[in-house]
């Protein structure tokens, strides 16, 4: 019975992390398109994808260590929770960046 509860928990974390990561990934692509000249897009997107690859590699190393420390179910739950937190932080940063860009600070008159 406890395995079934852990499976639901794993699923819930993956659904939550995935539903937040998709808009964040789209936002990153839009930021590249807005801030990088079109002739440099190939380099910018390649760098973006390389950074994702480094993140996936690091997650694999951490997951391997966590599996031996706490077991596979809790290691997966921990990795999904970290992905959820990272996606939330990135999403909040994107929202704040967009808010400050759409409402630039007005210069004060002395």
UniProtKB/TrEMBL annotation:
Organism: Nocardiopsis eucommiae
Record's keyword annotation contains Repeat: no
Full protein name: MFS transporter
Transmembrane segments: 12-31, 43-67, 73-96
Gene3D superfamilies, per the entry: MFS general substrate transporter like domains (1.20.1250.20)
Organism superkingdom: Bacteria
Keywords assigned: Membrane, Transmembrane, Transmembrane helix
Signal peptide: none
């Amino acid at each position: 019975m406890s395995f079934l509860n852990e499976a639901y928990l794993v699923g819930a974390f993956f659904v939550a992390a995935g539903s937040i990561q998709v808009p964040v990934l789209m936002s990153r692509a839009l930021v590249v398109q807005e801030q990088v000249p079109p002739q440099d897009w190939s380099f910018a997107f390649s760098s973006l994808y390389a950074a994702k690859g480094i993140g996936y590699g690091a997650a694999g190393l951490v997951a391997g260590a966590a599996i031996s420390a706490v077991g596979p179910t809790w290691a997966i739950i921990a990795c999904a929770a970290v992905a959820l937190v990272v996606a939330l932080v990135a999403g909040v940063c994107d929202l704040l960046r967009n808010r400050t860009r759409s409402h630039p600070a007005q210069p004060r008159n002395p």
